Please model this.
Amino acid sequence: MESIRLLRTGDEALVEAFCARHPDTTLFFRNNIQQAGLEDRGQRYQGTYAAAFDGGEICALAGHFWNGNVILEAPVHLEEVLRALSLIH
Model:
């Protein structure tokens, strides 16, 4: 893993590439980002997203959403993406 960070507007293509590699397990990510983007202002479908990167590509993704749900597609670096969302210390 080269880095981990919160995602922001402009990272959509990186998320889409990751989701394309995991189509069966990223439907909620795709829908929420399509509906509300990557910014979190506490509105419906919005959330805070954290990703781990390797080779410039996302290798793990986590989202903490407006309704309190946490969604993960983290085949690697699970603890790190959760920590980036401040869900574990």
Remarks:
- The longest helix spans residues 12-21.
- The mean pLDDT is 94.
